[in-house]
Amino acid sequence: MNLINLQDFEDAARSKLDAMALGYYASGADDEVTLHDNREAYNRIKLHYHTLVDVSACDLTTKVLGTDISMPVIVAPTAFHRLAHKDGELATVRAAGSAATIMVLSTLSNTNVEDVVANATAPVWFQLYVYRDRDATLALVERVRDAGCAALVLTVDAPVLGQRERDVRNHFRLPAGMRVTNMSGLGLGDLPDAQQQSGLAAYFASLIDPSLTWKDIDWLRSAGGLPIIIKGIVRADDARMALEHGVDGIVVSNHGGRQLDTAPATIDVLAGIADAVGGKVEVFLDGGVRRGTDIVKALALGARAVLVGRPILWGLVVDGESGVARVLEMLRVELGRAMALCGCPDVASVNRGLVDPKQK
Ligand code: FNR
Ligand code: LAC
């Protein structure tokens, strides 16, 4: 099949994956209202394009936290890449490097952070889950720093795991030989063999710390000495709290609709959060980004860059490193076309007026 858009990649990946892995990758929480709304919200926003602007050379490059990247698209942290392809996170990080963009590596990877960074040709950020065992968490943060990761992305929307019903029905577990590799040296690498529920939900319930609060941000900063980006914010007042606690960036995210169902679509809350932040730190967005026009809308409403989750996994399933590279390239081409058609020769010219012409 000729794959010409990200939906084609998803369809191709769906036909290759077994039910347990597909259920895990594709699911949202409960009735999947937020999962679908993340997508539908983009269709409700219209692009009021400019005409007769010279777009013969569209420049997609940008900077995030001081780092140059080739386009405002970053690889979101997603767990367990070896369920998609035998090369797992190594394939993903090589493809991100070829695309000259950042990969955010999940705490729950099937590959050690050191090996991922050793295969990277662009910066790697590390997504952190804080374990109840704070010493183990500190040991992980120190490893991440020593490995050379450039930032910590602290996920704050998952004190407990959302209920993904397919994972419950499938009693989700990892195949033999796959584990939470980063934590296995500390005895925290294996999902329990849950009989009645998702093994990942059971892992979360027993090991991940649901008592995390704002004061832990200060603890984390002194522990790691790395910039801290908070992922999972959907409210302006929480964004202001994040500023008060000195974070370096905010990811507007509802975890791809996998945590609290009926949480708002991220694109719908982005502008309010960007306004509250007022440019003091960089704001990112993820959830449902599948088209170049989605990226333009996110930039117009205040995002510095977007993160992409499931499409990376679909690329990995279809063809490993080269599949991920094709997904990223597709987004690059679509973004370039959308910007040209919007009369935007560079990312700085994508502003609120594109989605709200009254603003300019
Ligand atoms: C995720 N996400 C996620 N987030 C995180 O902080 N740590 C993690 O380990 C994971 N794992 C994970 C696994 C899978 C299979 C999915 C689909 C998602 C959430 C992810 O970072 C991101 O917020 C969403 O995937 C963005 O939505 P889209 O692009 O998938 O619609
Ligand atoms: C998930 C967790 C691991 O969404 O973040 O499955």
Would you report the number of β strands?
10
User: What Rg do the Cα atoms give?
Assistant: 19 Å
Q: Give the oligomeric state.
A: single chain
Globally, the shape reads globular
CATH superfamily: Aldolase class I
Report the uncertain regions: none
Q: How many strands, what sense, and barrel or not for the largest sheet?
A: 8 strands, parallel
Helix/strand order, N-terminal first: HHHEEEHEHEHEHHHHEHEHEHEH
For the record, the CATH class is Alpha Beta
Quickly give the structural class: alpha/beta
Assign a percent range to the helix content: 40-55%
Describe the structure.
The chain is of the alpha/beta class and 360 residues long. The protein has 14 helices and ten strands. The strands form two sheets. An eight-stranded parallel β-sheet has the order 3-10-9-8-7-6-5-4. Helix 11 crosses helix 12 and helix 13 packs across helix 14. It is globular and about 60 Å long. The site of lactic acid (LAC) has 5 residues, from loops. Lactic acid binds next to loops.
